[in-house]
Amino acid sequence: MAKIFYYYRSKKNIGPITIRLSHKNDIDYFVNTQLFIEKTFWNFNKGIPKTTDDKAKKAKVDLTNLERSILESFNADYNDGIPISKDWLQFKVDLFFKRVTLNSVSDILLDNIQRIIDGASIRRNSKGGIGLSKSRINSYNNLKKLLMSFQKDLKKVMKIKDVNLQFAQEFKTYMKDKGYSNSYLEKKLSDIKTVCLDAQINGIETSIQLPKVTGLKVKNDFIIYLNEDDLVKIKSKEFKSAAHKNAKRWLLLGAMIGQRGNDLLSLTNQNIIYQHGIKLIELVQEKGNKRVVIPFSPEMEDLLKDGFPHRISIQKFNSYLKEICKNAEINEPTIGSLYNKELKRKVVGTYEKWQLISSHDLRRSMASNNYGKMPTPLIMSITGHKTEAMLLRYIGKTSDDFAQQIADYYLRQAALTNKSADELTNEMRIVN
């Protein structure tokens, strides 16, 4: 149980009263209450003001109420896992005496994350509108939990100005030791920098090294998608359950049109339009607010001859996806990350492929299966990637893939002209 003590530690006749917060062996902090009292009115044995003076009586009442307020706040915050620090104690003292308000901008890193979460409904989002998305709020909540664990290991409460190159290195080491993927590490580091820049706008001091603390865009650690052989297996697999039949149609459609899960499952017959005699699916992507039009293919015509599948939640769809892929024997050993309920986070390992499939992988399936067959700008117009570099990073393509693509091009040209690939290569060298 936490305890509060008061001290008069000045050598002068009038001095400030110091408050001490103690709890077990891990918390023992002293701060100045900025309440002053005459030395003659302080009871050094009991650690409280004497009651022989009106000002001393008022000070005793204030200190009694302050003790009650601090202990109530401590019990609530400590049980919620909020780090208790000397700064925390000083803030609570100042809050009690109304020297600050709850709206005052703190320089504590966790406080600034919480401030963003609390103001999520009125913050400007990436679409230019007002209000952060649910997924973005969840991302900040996850960041807060992650940093609470990180601080516990360091036994230190991080301030905004502490986010420097040393912090970045310690954070990366911590994340790697815990088994987090490189991409997740960089995303969280990028989020931390965003929090610091937001605090900077509000007048909080930041490290001069903050611009160097970057959340770099890294190559996807694991490129998970359903290849053409997987899709053939799924298409040929029959299901008795109406729910699985419905989800199977969504799966096949998703692998054709390359949209994110929420955008895919929001489609209805109203998204079908005609332009210049061409039948199209038209939608506005939730992320980025980009308009996308996708022509019907013969396969899509056959799949949607009775209209779109029945709408289901993204949670149910992800669950059905795994069941469908498992029954279709999509079980190739695949490296990826899977959520561990005991550890309450994703763990990298080798799993059967069906275990790793989620709705987002359908978008990557479309891009990966069509890369090298469909012109890259057309794939980008469907997936919504702004640059070719972003698309290639998304599907994990490398210079080796480009070499293969060029070799395939030579072979196709050779077949058309009845010349060997070597002859074509030599001709191109002469031209160049």
Automatic annotation (TrEMBL):
SUPFAM superfamilies named in the record: DNA breaking-rejoining enzymes
Name of a matching Pfam family: Phage_int_SAM_5
All copies of domain Tyr recombinase, residue ranges: 221-408
Record keywords, A-Z: DNA recombination
InterPro entries: DNA_brk_join_enz (IPR011010), Integrase-like_cat_sf (IPR013762), Integrase_catalytic (IPR002104), SAM-like_dom (IPR025269)
Lineage top rank: taxon: Bacteria
Name this polypeptide is given: Tyrosine-type recombinase/integrase
Taxonomic source organism: Namhaeicola litoreus
